[in-house]
Design goal:
By secondary structure, the protein is mainly alpha-helical. It is built from three helices and no strands.
């Protein structure tokens, strides 16, 4: 019989601790509900979205213009070397192919070795 009373006392004590913890949590949640919450209006969010879209569009136009200028310069250089100096053009093509193959091979070897 005494063992049953001890078990009941332990469970009663655990129940009291659980009730105390629950009341503490409820008090903390009630305090959080008392804080004022500020949420901006819909117009502010719409302005932020429009500003971000404009910034992205400007960046895209800048990036595309730089890409096109560099592409035109590279292609015009290749065309000039092809028609004016075919030996230089062939040398550039061969050296570029060898460089790409060597670079790719070295990267694959590093991955295989585990560095």
């Amino acid at each position: 019989m005494k063992k049953q009373k001890v078990i009941l006392l332990d469970s009663e004590q655990a129940n009291k601790q659980e009730i105390a913890a629950i009341s503490e949590l409820q008090k903390g949640l009630n305090k959080m509900d008392e804080f004022p919450v500020y949420s901006p209006d819909l117009q502010w969010f719409e302005q932020m979205v429009l500003a971000e879209k404009q910034r992205i569009r400007k960046k895209l136009i800048k990036d595309l213009s730089v890409f096109l200028i560099v592409a035109v310069i590279i292609l015009s250089g290749i065309m000039v070397s092809l028609f004016q100096m075919p030996a230089v053009f062939i040398f550039l093509q061969i050296s570029t192919t060898i460089f790409i193959a060597g670079y790719t091979g070295s990267r694959v070897m590093k991955k295989v070795i585990g560095r």
